[in-house]
Write a structure and sequence with these properties.
Layout (H helix, E strand, L loop, with lengths): L6 E8 L8 H16 L5 E6 L5 H14 L4 E7 L3 H4 L14 H11 L2 E4 L13 H15 L2 E6 L11 H13 L5 E6 L3 E5 L5 E5 L8 E3 L7 H12 L8
Parallel strand pairs: 1-2, 1-5, 2-3, 3-4, 5-6
Antiparallel strand pairs: 6-9, 7-8
Length: 244
Amino acid sequence: MKESFRTLVVGVTGRRHIAPYALRAVEESTRAIFDFLAQVEDAHVVLETGLAIGADSLAARAALDAKRRGAKLLLRAVLPMPQHEYSKDFKTTSEPGTPSELDDFRALVDACDDVVEIPIVERKTNGEFSREAQYAALGERLVRESDLLLAYWSGDASKNKPGGTVDVVTRKLRAIATGARGRVLSIATPENFREKNPDGSKRFRPELIDSPGACALDSGAFAPVASALESLASALDVTLQRTE
């Protein structure tokens, strides 16, 4: 018997710095994913994203593009802290003629259908709070609320921190294994690692993977996006609308 979703919540977690060589492939797979979501019958699709640079904002832009092409979905920003505090995460400078990270963030917030701010988890006596605790709270929401978690990473679980991609994916898979609802769709996304030169300046080193943009369902192996979406339709037990 097919499960009828009144609302299909799609959460996003992933790398902030995506290796440039993989960006087009990741964007193309993301477009295919949103085309798939637009075809799911009897579902009100809600995308929840923290709008961080990288994967979060990439998925948000793909959702906006899908809406312009006729998809019926709701884009919800779930900010890990009040917006005026979260804005400090984004650079205010950029190359001449291009918007800054902060400009991009504000534009995406304005384009969202709904904006949720996670309350401060705990304030210290001096009024300060832990940003790490706020990111962890966002991760907890993604694990708890997502019917489908889109995870933009390479599958390398060696780097883990509370609220980070590895943490969120691991906890979601553990929850699914114990009977919780939901699925994880990983999109092969290499990171552009930031490293320091001996003189203190920074450089980027791209993570090298074989098939950027390939997708994996839950703990499965990466495969072409079309194949992974077939498996996802079966796993969610949904019917897709026919397209002309």
